[in-house]
Specification:
alpha+beta
Length: 922
């Protein structure tokens, strides 16, 4: 018997079918060991010795593998073909050697780029040893992220209340978003005018031409800068005689893009399918691990974490066959296309992301897949096939036109493009983020010397626009261009920025939150080198040299730690006033926007003599007066509180209170406040008089960011409850409101919670009636039980694994154990493997089952304390690339007192992994 170890149960199940009864395929469920979330896990004093802990979940997997290995003929480590996969194999081998169960059992390492029968068989015939250079690159990367997180994050906690963490790549990605926002804020629009003539040929065809020159001088886009200049050109052209000066038609070709890499797949899935990078990787993982088609489980795409753009010769040959069969021989180029990597720091030479069998057309496999899987597979298939198709043949025509008015000669130009042969464009055209595709216009037939008739002359005013905010796709593209981070972990980095509330997404664009801007400002002021793009890219280059066995990984760590530790030490005596003044200067355009009258934007609008400054409080940063406590003027950082004349609207404001405006009906102020249980809205002010009526309040619906609340939305929320419909039987009103457990609809004493996709302000009559009727039919105070969505069965049994919507969020269950999905996880995209891991972790923790009757409940305070401790532990254990472990300060002090251990492998209590880490993959 040969034992094969892979990462996931789904992968194990598929490969076991291929290999047969002589093999036992087991899953490690990802990493089995991790660095403990405490000081000393990476020790610079001991040449960066790393202390690894075997988690309870990992211990169970190792015990299972160890039991199978005893008496086995061979151990085959078949984890993913990248650095992270190499590291998982190394961890498994180290753990088994520590248990001394291998003895004379030979160990082999195999990799395959696709989970197909042929790919697996080929890999088994070509075993190798573990690549120590790849392992060393993983160790260096993991140690760097740990050292940054465990040393830089505590500095943030001390100097910037509310800041949660910093990371080697995370902080640089955040700086990109913040720098773009700063560009937008400081941008000065410039006026310019375009002059367009609508002309008619002798045959009566109409087209447009633009002004490009006058009096022998070229005129660029911004050269006509005033209305007077534009009017002068328009007036002359109204009187001019138009003649075709020349017509030039040039053939051109447009070539297809290469097949997908990890980065380009994330970008296109974001543009064309609206998928976040993390979601794209989850769906791609399921396509890679396999789907049952025609009674056989097969992997549908090759490995999805790659920088390579090349394809195997047999895949290229198959693509050419498919093109000929589906589109005709004219679309098959004379020779196969070859592509090369252009991105910096390209990783190991894997194949591009492509279908494992191009003969599986998207329309043929769609019925076996979930909708998102089918769409992503189709996108990958189309891009792959198009990459081997013939180029598109175009004809670009340029017509130069002379406009003569008296002795003056004005030049205009008309351009057009005609597709002579569509080539790959018949199948695919790559999307763009920030610019629209040029319109392909066909110009009418003309020749030099032809006269033209003026139809109309238009002079149009324009203003230059600031650069657009990054979308997730364009940020991934920019990070790749700069060589920052690894494409396989971009999804995790972006998810961390959102989870930490450093950025938000508005209209598909990344907008930095004030918390993120302050963190970036602090790092730029006091740790600038470590958020510089070139420094981060150079460090990535060094890590790639480690993976190529060119330099020692510890040498990289020594060079980094020497300067980084000195920078950390330099902040110990840093005073809060120094931090605030640095931020006041760096974020001046954001914190103190210019006033319309040109007066000092930092002058206190209340006392007049004080100077406004950034201050730090319990609820985060705010702006206050330097004359405090005599002057109590404050305002929220992310809302300047400016009225029409640019003066502060509030006097004696409070930190944690943002004035949104006045209610037009009552004239009372509407404020957004930070409360003990989260942000809430309030109409008016509370009175200290006995028996006075309390001001109206409303909590925010789950998922609504405080920064997204304006006066209009606040007034709608404060107007709740609202009548949505009338009950079809009783005629009584059905109301929508927000309560202790979130949004709901109500009919009399019947309450029904709204779903996560329902908006309490927008929910309609039909939906409300359905929820109430369903609740009434289900009986009791809770709705009829949600049957959920079955996503598969537990290995070795017929027990269904189901995703359900629960009172406290979505969860997965096997009928006995319920496991809540991590924060931010998409219930529609959860995989069977993820569900099994969550259920197993919940079972090992001894929770998830229904309590027996009469069982005592833990006191509320104790339960809250336990929940907070678990949350802190989960955060501390989070360690994706660019998001190093970030322990809480209390835990840090306790860890410092704990005695050091010499063991390199120890057991510990289970610690939850973040969703970001499970998505990282490298």
């Amino acid at each position: 018997m040969k034992v094969v170890v892979v990462e996931s149960p789904a992968k194990a199940k598929t490969i076991n079918k291929y290999l047969g009864s002589d093999y036992e395929v087991l899953a490690s469920f990802g990493h089995i060991r991790d660095l403990p979330a405490k000081d000393g896990s990476v020790d610079p004093e001991q040449d960066f010795h790393m202390l690894w802990e075997l988690e309870d979940r990992g211990a169970k997997r190792v015990a299972e593998i160890a039991k199978a290995v005893k008496g086995a003929d061979k151990l085959i480590l078949a984890t993913d073909p990248d650095r992270e996969g190499e590291a998982i194999s190394w961890h498994v081998l180290e753990a088994l050697q520590a248990k001394k169960v291998l003895k004379d059992v030979p160990v082999e390492r195999v990799t395959f780029n696709a989970i197909t029968k042929d790919a697996v068989a080929t890999a088994m015939a070509q075993p190798r040893a573990i690549d120590q250079a790849l392992v060393d690159a993983y160790l260096a990367r993991r140690a760097l992220d740990y050292l940054v997180g465990f040393n830089l994050s505590p500095v943030l906690w001390r100097k910037l209340p509310g800041a949660r963490s910093a990371g080697r790549v995370q902080s640089v990605a955040l700086r990109l978003v913040c720098d773009r926002e700063r560009e937008i804020e400081t941008f000065k629009p410039r006026e310019y005018w375009s002059i367009v003539a609508t002309l008619k040929t002798e045959s009566g065809a109409v087209f447009e031409a633009r002004l490009v020159g006058a009096d022998g001088k070229r005129i660029q886009r911004l050269d006509v800068g005033t209305a007077d200049e534009a009017e002068a050109f328009r007036r002359d052209l109204e009187l001019a005689t138009f003649t075709v000066a020349s017509v030039e038609a040039k053939p051109a070709k447009r070539h297809p893009q290469p097949p997908f890499t990890t980065s380009t797949l994330q970008q296109e899935a974001s543009r064309k399918l609206g998928l976040a990078p993390a979601q794209t990787m989850r769906v791609a993982q399921r396509l890679y691990e396999g789907t049952e088609i025609g009674g056989e489980t097969v992997g549908l795409i090759t490995y999805m974490r790659t920088d390579g753009v090349d394809m195997a010769p047999e895949a290229v040959a198959q693509a050419r066959q498919v093109i000929g069969a589906e589109y005709g021989d004219a679309y098959v180029p004379g020779a196969p296309r070859k592509y090369s990597v252009k991105a910096k720091n390209a990783q190991e030479a894997h194949e591009a992301v492509r279908p494992t069998d191009l003969a599986r057309l998207p329309k043929d496999v769609a019925r076996f897949l979930e909708p998102e899987q089918a769409k992503l597979y189709e996108l990958i298939w189309i891009r792959t096939v198009a990459s081997q198709m013939e180029s598109a043949e175009l004809e670009r025509t340029t017509v130069e036109i002379a406009a003569n008015v008296g002795p003056r000669r004005i030049e205009l130009r008309a351009t057009g493009q005609v597709v002579k042969f569509d080539g790959f464009l018949t199948l695919y055209q790559e999307g763009k983020d920030d610019e629209e595709d040029e319109e392909s216009r066909r110009l009418p037939p003309m020749k030099a010397g032809d006269g033209l008739t003026r139809e109309r002359i238009a002079a149009t005013q324009h203003f230059t626009e600031p650069p657009p905010r990054y979308s997730e796709a364009s940020l991934v593209k920019r990070m790749e261009e700069l060589g920052i981070g690894r494409p396989s972990t971009y999804a995790a980095v972006l998810q961390v920025l959102r989870d930490r509330e450093y950025v938000k997404i508005d209209k598909k664009r990344l907008v930095p939150e004030d918390k993120g801007r302050i963190v970036t400002g602090f790092l730029e002021s006091f740790f600038r080198r470590y958020v510089e793009y070139d420094f981060t890219a150079d460090l990535e280059s060094q890590l790639d040299r480690v993976s190529n066995a060119e330099i020692d990984w510890r040498a990289v760590l020594r060079d980094f730690w020497r300067d980084f530790s000195a920078a950390i030490a330099g902040t110990k005596e840093l005073r809060t006033t120094e931090v605030l003044e640095a931020l006041n200067g760096l974020l001046a355009e954001h914190i103190f926007p210019a006033k319309a009258d040109g007066s000092n934007p930092r002058a206190c609008p209340t006392c007049g003599s004080g100077q406004l400054s950034l201050k730090l409080g319990k609820f985060g940063a705010f702006v206050g007066c330097s004359n405090y406590p005599e002057c109590k003027y404050t305002r929220q950082l992310n809302a300047t509180g400016l009225d029409g004349d640019g003066e502060g609207s509030g006097e004696g404001g409070q930190p944690g209170v943002r004035v949104l405006g006045d209610d037009p009906e009552t004239g009372l102020p509407v404020t957004l406040r930070d409360g003990r249980f989260g942000p809430f809205l309030q109409l008016g002010e509370a009175s200290a008089e006995k028996g006075a009526e309390k001001p109206k309040r409303s909590s925010l619906p789950k998922g609504l960011s405080p920064s997204a609340v304006d006066l209009e939305k606040a007034l709608k929320l404060l107007s709740l409850p609202r009548e949505v419909a009338r009950h079809p039987e009783t005629g009584e009103p059905i109301l929508a409101n927000i309560g202790r457990y979130g949004p709901y609809v109500q009919h009399g004493k019947t309450y029904a919670n709204l779903g996560k996709d329902d908006d309490v302000l927008e929910v309609g009559a039909n939906r409300a009636i359905d929820l109430i009727v369903q609740k009434e039919q289900g009986g009791g105070r809770r709705p009829a039980q949600d049957p959920g969505r079955v996503i598969g069965t537990a290995p070795g049994s017929d027990t269904p694994i189901t995703v359900k919507a629960g009172r406290y969020g979505a969860y997965v269950t096997d009928g006995e154990i319920n496991a809540t999905l991590p924060k931010g996880a998409d219930a529609e995209a959860v995989t069977l493997d993820e569900a099994l891991r969550l259920i197993a972790a919940r079972r090992e923790a001894g929770g998830g089952t229904k309590k027996k009757a009469g069982a005592r409940k833990a006191p509320a305070k104790a339960a809250t304390k336990t929940a907070k401790a678990k949350t802190a532990k989960a955060e501390a254990a989070d360690g994706t690339e660019g998001e190093a472990a970030t322990p809480k300060p209390v835990a840090r002090k306790a860890a410092a007192k704990a005695p050091a251990t010499k063991s390199t492998t120890a057991k510990k209590a289970p610690a939850k992994k973040s969703a970001a880490k499970s998505a990282a993959g490298e």
